[in-house]
């Protein structure tokens, strides 16, 4: 099938072409899918999209007019897709149901270790011939309480690793997970988790219910020196509310791999541009903030699985088969 791969970078091309082995006609573009660029997919029955693409009702309308029948997401989260509009227009949406949860969980742990022990600042200092330890002090993870919001695949792997460090675990989820319980996790309300944790790590999906779950009111419940980590989706946090918190708390810290306005910034080299986003620029001035550009998924293993599942989804669609990755099964595949 003819497939237009939006928001693609060299690494997407490498992994998708290796998984495809010439079966489908893959065309790659670096541009993101949005109203302005949907026209590029005219006569492509399949578009392949990423988390930064806009797959709202207007875009789907245009894709439908151009003959698109399948949106193949190369991601797990689908908060950027209007599923109702897709079903109405007869467009099937498929995702990568799961891939290495280790990639994201290990990255969250990496952020915690980096922030806590100031590895990023130490590296810069030493490169500059500055071997002073002033301001680099951290804390032992052993014995600290870690709050895990969302104890699904990634949250469980993350909990296992933190348990290995000797941390106590608090969990908050709609469904309790036996594996986490076996690690000694105690399930509590979100309020109790925020109040009782030294580190809070977010691993739940972005839904209307979880949107801004971390806001000025819930931030006020955090311990004064708590570390907040978000490797899930940016809009779980009202980012604006972090700034007064960071100005006041001094000993707290924030690690973000995702940002609610990331689609205008991430996955691009803007080092020669004036960045017109005062919130992220202000956040970057705090020594106790660590930001990465939505890279937690980015391991070879995860990329192989994402590419393999995406091509498998396109294979199934083209053969008229459904599978567990279809997000709108009410749209009967014909
Ligand atoms: P999962 O579906 O296995 O787990 C999500 C968990 O969140 C489930 O246990 C679910 O019950 C829970 N949950 C749902 N609503 C909740 C609520 N209101 N309060 C508390 N818990 C709630 O998903 P996963 O594979 O573990 O992925 C988690 C999230 O990580 C994804 O939704 C995605 O947004 C994000 N993610 C980020 C990256 C990255 O590169 N940064 C990569 C992959 C996934």
Bin the strand percentage.
Answer: 5-15%
Low-confidence stretches: none
Shape assignment: globular
SS-based class: alpha/beta
Give the secondary structure arrangement, pairings included.
Layout: E1 2-5, H1 10-20, E2 25-28, E3 46-49, H2 57-65, E4 70-73, H3 83-88, E5 92-94, H4 101-117, H5 119-127, E6 145-149, H6 153-164, E7 168-172, H7 178-182, E8 186-187, H8 190-196, E9 199-202, H9 216-219, E10 227-230, H10 242-249, E11 253-256, H11 278-283, E12 289-291, H12 300-318
Parallel strand pairs: 1-2, 1-3, 3-4, 4-5, 6-7, 6-9, 7-8, 9-10, 10-11, 11-12
Helix pairs in contact: 1-12, 4-6
The structure holds nicotinamide-adenine-dinucleotide.
Residues 76-77, 98, 101, 104, 149-155, 172-175, 203-207, 209-210, 231-233, 257-258, 294, 296-297 line the site of nicotinamide-adenine-dinucleotide.
Describe this structure in words.
By secondary structure, the chain is α/β, with parallel strands linked by helices. It has 12 helices and 12 strands. It has helices at residues 10-20, 57-65, 83-88, 101-117, 119-127, 153-164, 178-182, 190-196, 216-219, 242-249, 278-283, 300-318; strands at residues 2-5, 25-28, 46-49, 70-73, 92-94, 145-149, 168-172, 186-187, 199-202, 227-230, 253-256, 289-291. Strands 8-7-6-9-10-11-12 form a 7-stranded parallel β-sheet, with helices on both faces. The two termini are 15 Å apart. Bound molecules: nicotinamide-adenine-dinucleotide (NAD). Nicotinamide-adenine-dinucleotide (NAD) binds next to helix 4 and helix 6. Nicotinamide-adenine-dinucleotide binds at residues 76-77, 98, 101, 104, 149-155, 172-175, 203-207, 209-210, 231-233, 257-258, 294, 296-297.
């Amino acid at each position: 099938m003819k497939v237009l791969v939006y928001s693609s970078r060299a690494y997407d091309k490498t992994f998708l072409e290796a998984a495809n082995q010439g079966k489908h006609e893959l065309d790659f573009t670096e541009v993101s899918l949005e109203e302005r660029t949907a026209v590029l997919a005219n006569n492509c029955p399949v578009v392949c999209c990423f988390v930064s693409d806009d797959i709202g009702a207007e875009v789907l309308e245009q894709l439908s007019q151009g003959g698109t029948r399948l949106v193949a997401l190369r991601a797990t989260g689908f908060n950027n897709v209007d599923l109702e509009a897709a079903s109405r227009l007869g467009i099937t949406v498929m995702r990568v149901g799961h891939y290495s949860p280790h990639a994201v969980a290990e990255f969250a742990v990496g952020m915690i270790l980096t922030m806590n022990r100031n590895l990023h600042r130490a590296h810069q200092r030493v490169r500059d011939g500055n071997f002073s330890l002033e301001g680099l002090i951290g804390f032992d993870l052993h014995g600290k309480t870690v709050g895990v919001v969302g104890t699904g695949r990634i949250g469980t792997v993350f909990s296992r690793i933190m348990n290995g460090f000797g941390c106590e675990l608090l969990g908050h989820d709609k469904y309790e997970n036996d594996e986490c319980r076996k690690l000694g996790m105690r399930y509590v309300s979100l309020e109790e988790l925020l109040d009782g944790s030294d580190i809070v790590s977010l691993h739940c999906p972005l839904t209307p219910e979880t949107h801004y779950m971390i806001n000025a009111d819930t931030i006020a419940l955090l311990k004064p020196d708590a570390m907040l980590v978000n490797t899930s989706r940016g809009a779980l946090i009202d980012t604006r509310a972090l700034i007064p918190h960071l100005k006041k708390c001094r000993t707290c810290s924030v690690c973000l791999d995702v940002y609610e306005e990331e689609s205008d910034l991430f996955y691009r080299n803007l080092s020669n541009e004036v960045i017109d986003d005062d919130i992220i620029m202000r956040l970057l001035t705090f020594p106790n903030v660590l930001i990465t550009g939505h890279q937690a998924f980015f391991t070879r293993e995860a990329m192989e699985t994402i590419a393999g599942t995406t091509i498998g989804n396109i294979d199934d669609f083209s053969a008229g088969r459904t599978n567990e990755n279809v997000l709108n099964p009410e749209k009967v595949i014909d």
